[in-house]
């Protein structure tokens, strides 16, 4: 499946159209669809696609040369031999092709694991040969920390060479229906709140089974693919993962403030900032502040949130319950999911979906196009979403329930809004589960 990567594909096509060498970096967590994007892009174009593994460097060199042989129509191509990758890159720069040549190295970080100086070799090759050739070099990786240190960071060997970089993220909620057609929006909300929107995870969902059975078969079963996924995702980024796991589990349980996390883990709050900062750097956590804050960086009301819906679900129901799941006691965990999944996960995910929908189609919900939208809270009150432009402000309550007394909820919303000191024209909106399901 190739769904909703039009902007990223257009970025790559624009690079291909340039009358000069191009250098793109594509990064993002595993299974997010990076390889599928590259595969779509290189169709019907001259290309060398190379998937780097963790085998020895000489073996990688041999495989890379075989890809060149497939591409080249030179009579001596089958006899090509090179001592190292620098020689390979120099040879590629001499190839005369009618169209731009794409060189795509997937899982680039594996070459850097095998040779700590590989990026420096590639830097030299780019500066001396490749940047003067009609090529589009693509480096793709799924270990964010490695891609950052080798390519993206200011002190990285390849810093300043790239002409574009694409951080490929999970797809938006609205595209779930393309993976899982003919499902109700309320069913898609349950899937979104548990499986998230990573394409590989969605492809594992079996439509002929109930939601609960999919959870058991794909996440809770200790032999299933997703059972250890959270563990694997973090350990490929962090060597000493123990403290990070504890922090993420605490956040998944609802401890979103530094003080709450510290209290839950019986730690001093000064211990946490470096871990929280690292998790933000790895795009696992995000720090939120009330949307009306004039100086967000100095706000003392910051809260931490696990960005990925699957990871949030995994830490709360899988990681926390390893002692049951390891001995196949899935029923106990499933009962916990039935008891609190809607309140703990779907209701909050619903706010995120409405946030997304308003950003994409604001006039479907509001009478103006907001310049900012997000959550608001103080030490006493919370409002699900507040959206505003220069003249208007709308206070929004999202209720993942049917048969809501909207007048009562709206009055409560009006009462809470008085704590937001603002002179703009005020609007109030209550969105319910029932309305969400029927709204087109």
Quick recap:
The chain has three domains: 162 residues, 3-Layer(aba) Sandwich (Rossmann fold), CATH 3.40.50.300; 165 residues, Arc Repressor Mutant, subunit A (Orthogonal Bundle); 78 residues, no CATH class. The protein contains 20 helices and eleven strands.
Description:
The structure is a single chain. It contains 20 helices and eleven strands. The chain has 440 residues and is an alpha/beta fold. The chain folds into three domains: 6-167, 3-Layer(aba) Sandwich (Rossmann fold), CATH 3.40.50.300; 175-339, Arc Repressor Mutant, subunit A (Orthogonal Bundle); 361-438, no CATH class. It has a five-stranded parallel β-sheet with strand order 2-3-4-1-5. Strands 8-9-10-11 form a four-stranded mixed β-sheet, sandwiched between helices. It is globular.
Tally of discrete structural domains? 3
Strand line-up in the sheet with most strands = 2-3-4-1-5
- Output the CATH topology of the largest domain: Arc Repressor Mutant, subunit A
Q: Superfamily at the CATH H level of the largest domain?
A: Winged helix-like DNA-binding domain superfamily/Winged helix DNA-binding domain
Structure classification: alpha/beta
**What would the principal axes of the Cα set say about the shape?**
globular
Indicate the mean pLDDT.
Answer: 92
Q: Just name the CATH architecture of the largest domain.
A: Orthogonal Bundle
Rounded to the nearest angstrom, the radius of gyration is 25 Å
Q: Major β-sheet, in short?
A: 5 strands, parallel
Please give the alpha-carbon distance between the first and last residues: 24 Å
Q: Provide the β-strand percentage band.
A: 5-15%
Question: How many strands in all?
Answer: 11
Q: Please, how many helices?
A: 20
Give the low-pLDDT segments.
none
What's the level 1 CATH class of the largest domain? Mainly Alpha
Helix content: 40-55%
């Amino acid at each position: 499946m190739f769904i909703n990567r039009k902007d990223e594909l257009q970025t790559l096509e624009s690079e291909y159209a340039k009358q000069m060498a191009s250098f793109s970096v594509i990064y993002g967590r595993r299974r997010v669809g990076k390889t599928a994007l590259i595969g779509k892009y290189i169709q019907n174009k001259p290309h060398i696609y190379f998937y780097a593994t963790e085998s020895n460097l000489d073996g990688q060199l041999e495989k890379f040369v075989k890809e060149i042989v497939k591409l080249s129509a030179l009579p001596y191509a089958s006899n090509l031999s090179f001592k190292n990758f620098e020689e390979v890159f120099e040879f590629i720069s001499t190839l005369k092709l009618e169209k731009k040549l794409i060189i795509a190295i997937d899982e680039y970080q594996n070459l850097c694991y095998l040779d700590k100086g590989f990026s420096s070799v590639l830097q030299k090759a780019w500066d001396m040969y490749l940047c003067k050739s009609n090529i589009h070099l693509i480096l793709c990786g799924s270990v964010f920390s490695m891609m950052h240190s080798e390519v993206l960071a200011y002190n990285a060997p390849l810093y300043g060479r790239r002409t574009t970089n694409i951080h490929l993220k999970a797809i938006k909620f609205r595209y779930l229906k393309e993976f899982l057609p003919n499902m109700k929006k309320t069913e898609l909300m349950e899937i979104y709140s548990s499986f998230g929107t990573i394409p590989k995870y969605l492809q594992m969902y079996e439509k002929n089974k109930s939601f609960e059975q999919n959870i058991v078969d794909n996440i809770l079963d200790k032999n299933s693919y997703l059972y250890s996924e959270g563990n694997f995702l973090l350990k490929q980024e962090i060597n000493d993962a123990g403290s990070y796991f504890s922090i993420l589990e605490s956040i998944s349980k609802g401890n979103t403030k530094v003080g709450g996390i510290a209290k839950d883990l019986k730690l001093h709050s000064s211990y946490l900032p470096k871990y929280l900062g690292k998790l933000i750097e790895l795009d696992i956590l995000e720090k939120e502040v009330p949307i009306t804050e004039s100086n967000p960086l100095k706000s003392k009301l910051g809260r931490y949130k696990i960005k990925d819906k699957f990871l949030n679900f995994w830490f709360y129901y899988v990681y926390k319950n390893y002692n049951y799941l390891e001995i196949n006691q899935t029923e106990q965990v499933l009962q916990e999911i039935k008891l609190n999944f809607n309140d703990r996960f779907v209701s909050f995910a619903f706010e995120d979906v409405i946030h997304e929908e308003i950003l994409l189609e604001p006039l479907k919900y509001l009478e103006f196009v907001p310049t900012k939208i997000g959550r608001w809270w103080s030490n006493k009150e919370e409002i699900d979403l507040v959206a505003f432009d220069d003249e208007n402000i709308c206070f929004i309550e999202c209720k993942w329930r049917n048969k809501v007394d909207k007048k009562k909820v709206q009055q409560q919303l009006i009462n809470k809004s008085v704590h937001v000191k603002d002179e703009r024209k005020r609007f109030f909106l209550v969105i319910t589960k029932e309305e969400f399901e029927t709204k087109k």
